[in-house]
Design goal:
By secondary structure, this protein is of the alpha+beta class. Helix content is 27%, strand content 24%.
Length: 594
């Protein structure tokens, strides 16, 4: 028995009635009824209601205690009356009558209440994160995080994976986000980089003859914060396998995710076998490579209809003739929606920077016709053929957008989500996973107009390696894939390029000479030259997995000690300045910004 407690604050039940016990914890709530003081004592495990009456010599001292003071109480377990039990607590059938208490930790005036679910400013929450973490919801999120990571580790072991740790201090790597750099004291003027991911190392693990590797890996990227991405650092389930094809990776990850999400959530899985959607298909049907498959709305390309003589919508026809496309979204049974529903969506699209969303509703009296601002521009025959292509029926409405492909994908993707939410079409009690496959190996950089890698530069191109047409690099597809759930990208992965000569050719397309590759990736190229197996992997984000399981919208709600939007740790005052002696030891000097 510990001198601080005989039981945790979630353990005592009716069977303990009459026992003398010791409990320790934080004062969660106090209720003073004059002659009787009720104290809810909280620890990591739960809450026990404790009572002390005015006749007790400790009453006045306990009455003055600040909430969140840490105390130890000695007392006796008593049954609650039937009408005073609390079914929400494991200990709700009993209470502890306090004989004596000892203060273990004083508490100053609180900057935010612990027992309240009231939202507080991020600055307060992060500055006093140790208090914020005591609050029930976020405390449970962090416990969930621990349990999920432990479960994943066990599952990976069952699947035959070995856990290894890869270096934190490494070399800077191109083709990614900004590195965090660490100056080397022993090598003046040179820097380590914190790993954006253990990409090269996990491939080297495969070259070293290990068959299945995994790691709950810390990753560091100097990039801006988003709701689903922490600034600075995050964790991922890094895994790699030898002698595998793409489908082998999928089978492992699907088994892991199905088991994990069924274990830790009551939500249903829409698919136990995750759909495979090509990049080309997802950009057409959903306008995004992160589609939310809970949303039933599909985007259709109807550009061809604006080349017909019996469609007279001249604004779109002129845009189509100058290289724009037209895509549409069909909404089912919306003919009775008020005009304001359609106009609000059109206005919303303009607020997103688009020219708006045209619309009409398909109706029928003697024959089919289109009702709405642009309905008069479509013949009966064009409407019938459009219905056949899009699956639209009488009573459905069609929203249309016209623009160049990139902008068109952006607005139709946003519109698909907006319309589905307005029509309440998304089932929040479902997880819908999918794979996005067949990514292009290369893309055009929108700023430099030069060819660059679209995803991971170490990926294997598809097809016969001796028949790849390097003269048409934008047509080369790669064995690259993303896993997406409910519109959130959880990870990218790939079958790796383990053939040095092929790597030189592909990097050359992206503007790297053979010397560049050997200089920047010397460890990797050298290793691949000594008998490398075919291998591949993926690295799902731990933080985003926990976000989904905890039903949170912001990654800070599932991260123990996150930074703010400006990549600052308000609690520990980081980043901070360093002394002149530290800079001198590192052979560094600071240049004052003008």
């Amino acid at each position: 028995m510990s001198k601080y407690r005989t039981h945790n604050c979630n353990e005592l039940t009716k069977k303990d009635t009459g026992d003398s016990v010791i409990l320790s914890g934080w004062i969660n709530k106090k209720r003073d009824h004059g002659n009787l003081l009720f104290i809810d004592l909280r620890d990591n495990y739960g809450i026990t209601q404790c009572i002390i009456d005015k006749e007790n010599s400790h009453f006045e001292k306990m009455e003055k205690l600040q909430l969140e003071t840490v105390i130890k109480i000695n007392g006796k377990v008593i049954r609650r009356s039937d009408d005073s039990t609390n079914k929400e607590l494991n200990t709700g059938d009993i209470e502890v009558s306090i004989d004596s208490f000892e203060m273990l930790g004083v508490c100053k005036e609180l900057p935010l209440p612990i027992f309240s679910n009231q939202e507080y400013a991020e600055e307060i929450r992060l500055k006093y994160r140790f208090l914020d973490l005591r609050r029930k919801k976020i405390h449970e999120n962090i416990i969930l995080r621990s349990k999920v990571i432990s479960f994943i580790r066990n599952e990976m072991n069952k699947l035959g994976f070995l856990e290894f740790q890869t270096p934190i201090l490494t070399s800077s790597s191109p083709e990614g986000a900004r590195d965090f750099l660490v100056p080397s004291r022993l090598n003046p003027g040179k820097f380590y980089a914190l790993p954006q991911a253990p990409q090269q190392f996990k491939q080297l693990v495969m070259v070293s003859g290990f068959d299945k590797y995994f790691q709950i890996a810390p990753c560091f990227r100097d990039e801006d914060a988003r709701a689903d991405r922490s600034p600075g650092e995050f964790y991922q389930l890094d895994l790699e396998m030898s002698f595998v094809e793409q489908e082998d990776i999928f089978n492992v990850v699907e088994k892991l995710f199905v088991n994990t999400f069924k274990k830790f959530s009551s939500k249903k899985l829409l698919f136990n076998k995750f759909p495979r959607i090509t990049y080309k298909e997802t950009m057409l049907k959903y306008g995004s490579d992160k589609p939310d498959l809970r949303n039933p709305l599909i985007i259709n390309d109807i550009t061809e209809f604006f080349l017909r003589e019996d469609v007279s919508f001249e604004i779109f026809k002129k845009l189509v003739n100058s290289g724009s496309n037209v895509r549409c979204i069909v909404t089912k049974n919306t003919k009775d929606k008020p005009r304001s529903f359609f106009d609000n969506i059109d206005q919303w699209a303009k607020e997103q920077g688009a020219s708006g969303l045209a619309y009409f509703t398909i109706e029928k009296e003697k024959s089919i016709f289109a009702k709405g601002p642009i309905g008069k521009f479509f013949s009966k025959e064009s409407l019938e053929e459009m219905m056949s292509k899009t699956g639209a029926e009488i009573g459905d409405s069609i929203f249309l957008a016209c623009d160049k492909p990139v902008e068109l994908e952006k607005i139709t993707s946003l519109a698909r989500d907006k319309i589905a939410k307005d029509l309440n079409l998304i089932d929040e009690n479902v997880f819908a996973f999918c794979w996005i496959v067949d990514y292009p190996m290369f893309e055009i950089d929108e700023f430099t107009n030069k060819i660059k890698f679209s995803h991971n530069p170490f990926s294997m191109p598809q097809g016969d390696k001796n028949k790849i047409n390097y003269e048409k690099p934008l047509e080369i597809l790669a064995y690259q894939y993303d896993i997406v759930c409910n519109g959130i990208e959880l990870s990218s992965g790939a079958i790796r390029n383990h053939i040095p000569e092929l790597m030189y050719k592909l990097f050359n397309i992206a503007g790297y000479s053979k010397i560049d590759v050997e200089k920047k990736f010397s460890g990797m190229i050298n290793a691949l030259s000594y008998g490398a197996p075919p291998h591949g992997g993926i690295a799902p984000g731990i933080d985003r997995i926990i976000m989904l399981l905890a039903n949170e919208k912001n990654i800070r709600e599932v991260t123990m000690f996150p930074m703010n939007q400006n990549a600052q740790d308000l609690m520990m005052n980081a980043p901070s300045g360093v002394s002149e002696s530290q800079l001198k030891e590192l052979n560094l000097s600071l240049k004052t910004k003008e």
